[in-house]
Amino acid sequence: QVQLVESGGGLVQAGGSLRLSCAASGRTFSSYYMGWFRQAPGKEREFLATISWSSGNTRYADSVKGRFTISRDNAKNTVYLQMTSLKPEDTAVYYCGSSGNVVPPTRLYQYDHWGQGTQVTVSS
Q1: Beta strands 78-83 and 113-114: pairing type?
Q2: DSSP assignment of 104-122, as one string?
Q3: 80-90 pLDDT, tens per residue?
Q4: First to last CA, the chain
């Protein structure tokens, strides 16, 4: 029973930056990794990044490596996705998820809980 709430989405111009937040609450003791995914209309939900609560170990999708940074604040039970050099193709609904995996989860099925998502729109 983990609750996740995303925030920080909005409209930004190409080349700009945006920081998303995901606040976790509830039974977070079973959450070992947090991750960010995104889904554009008509497309599959796409893995972006994941981070371990304990070690801070991260893993990124090649598509966002070098532009996006995932981080966490354990005291606040919050994970972040700092997005820079945004492109119109980054437009999507961005979701955070919680995973009980002990290895970095990069697939949808490896996540146990999801937030409701936050819209990111990048204009050209």
Answers
A1: unpaired
A2: ---SGGG-SEE---EEEEE
A3: 999 999 999 99
A4: 40
